[in-house]
Amino acid sequence: MKRLSVFLAAVLCGAAAVAGTEGESVPRVVPLLDRASRMPGSLFHSTEEKVGLKSSYPSAINVVLLSYKDGRCALIDTGFGPGLQRELAERKIPCGSISAVFITHIHPDHVGGLVAEDGRPAFPKAKIYVARREYEAWQRDPRRAALGKCFEPCRERIVLFDFDKALENWGLLPLLYPGHTPGHTVFKIAGKEAYFVGDIVHAVDLQVPHPGYCAKYDMEPARAVASRRELLMRGGVWYGSHIPFPGCVRISRAPDGTFRAVPVN
After folding, report:
1. Cis omega (within 30 of 0) for bond into 246
2. pTM of the model
């Protein structure tokens, strides 16, 4: 009950936020758990270095709720959906109150929750924001064709965006970090050195100190490694799709140049 009360206080859609620069709102960020999971060590490989891999690593499927001073609510990704629906119901947040959903990339554990079990849109009033590059790559990718079922019910509300341009008044800047998918998107949160990093890491305990390790899910491993290294150099706070819940760490760098992920409570 204590955990629930804390989160209830935090996620009310009218929760306080401050005005960002250039008229943008700075959202309040609240992690939501769609599903806990573990990533098997056999999932990872590296051509750069070899370390003793564990049998598995703690992970999760996380979604982020963004709440704004003016009462708007939005999500980054949707997980598979059932867990997210439970989280929203527990917090008394109607699906119809979600104004926008921002997608990091088109994989089932990120877009599956766009539709309910009956095939109807889970968030009937939300605009669905997807990077143009990712959306077009998905349309050409037969391996992901089945995910059209997630987008078809929402097709009239899809908004395609380009990188490095702030998204309206949402306080988000989309950045291209490809490799996992061609248009994999990291969202920088306005006014903060904070990022929702999507699938930059699948096992944070392994891939932050040893960024040369890739998951087999990465479509272009070399580019995924380059993206991970570049984002690590930015540091700051990371909210991640697969960082163990509550899915938030601070990136720090040791004197020897290696990186650490320190949990943020």
Report:
1. yes
2. 0.90
